[in-house]
Design goal:
By secondary structure, the protein is an alpha+beta fold. The protein has 12 helices and 7 strands. Helix 4 runs parallel beside helix 8, helix 5 packs across helix 7 and helix 10 packs across helix 11. It is globular, with a radius of gyration of 21 Å. InterPro entries: Acyl-CoA_DH_CS, Acyl-CoA_Oxase/DH_mid-dom, Acyl-CoA_Oxase/DH_mid-dom_sf, AcylCo_DH-like_C, AcylCo_DH/oxidase_C, AcylCoA_DH/ox_N, AcylCoA_DH/ox_N_sf, AcylCoA_DH/oxidase_NM_dom_sf.
Amino acid sequence: MDFSYPAEAKQFRAELSEWLSANLTDELVAARRTSGRDDATFEMLRAWSRTMSDAGWAAVSWPREYGGRGATVLEQLVYTEETTRARAPVPLNVIGMNNIAPAIMQYGTEDQKKTLLPRMMRADDIWCQGMSEPEAGSDLAALRTRAVRDADGFVVNGQKIWTSLGHRAHWCQLYVRTDPDAPKHKGISCLIVDMASPGIEVRPLVTLNGDTDFAEVFFHDVRVPADALLGPYNGGWQVATTTLGHERAGAARLYAEMQVRLDELVDDLATHTDALADPVTLRRLGEIALRIKYLEVLCQRSISATLHGGSQSAAFASASLAKTVWGEIGQDLAALAFDVLGTRGGNGAWANYRLTSRSLTIAGGTTQINKNITAQRVLGLPRG
């Protein structure tokens, strides 16, 4: 690995750190640890997105012509480290900005770019992503939601599930099957769908901890105009691949986030218990700290490969492995916190995290799917 920060990246870090110190409030930091997003918290986070956007810090990796800073890979790394360590809330539209916006930049019309991207950055419009289905979670190619083409556009029928912010979203990047007879990776198209369209039914999902950040979305003869197609017809797999490969230094958030959680846990253990004198607890904390350091090295190897001309496929495979390790660390950290603190500490945040941590090995790609990617793309093993 080679991480020698040039003067520009150091200046970038100094400017960002100074801005965060002046603008990030204790109320916003506390919002990171609240259970769910009630209306008041949601609007506070929306206002934060606007504050960041107006200051030019909302989407540093975006090209300048779309409101970003055209940040280099190292500047993206600096941004992720600084915002995570400062405990800044992630943007409400984090999925949209990291995953959906790059596809709009590459495949969208000029009108779509000028209309949709600024409003996404400021969280004026909330976005969701229609990928997962009841029988097609991490396996996008198994989706069944259909879009039938006619003279006026498309007619969509089907169901999506575990749609983040689906019940609050104004727009959806929707993946649909448009050719049922084609090989499953080649018969998919991507549509930009107005969530106010007639025939869309959204039902919030209540998770273990009582949150409603997810929803299931039903499409009943929903008419979508022809110009809502994003990317090539039957080329949705290509759009999804572009989407998921955009954030080149995003893996840094994995280790930075876990280090912040570990630091917070140690602080709460010291405040509420005498557990730091217990050798068993100390051993478990040490093991997690070591695994976070391993995760940091793993993520930085992936970023270093990007810096030095490594293939996008190899970087994606390394990121999949890092995501697997991140999920397992998060679950073990949550278990330790709850074993020792129970509902004490962090205003009940650890009890909440114990419940939500069960999703870490599912959301964003299940551990089983990621291990298959690692086996095939990293180790070169044949398919089973």
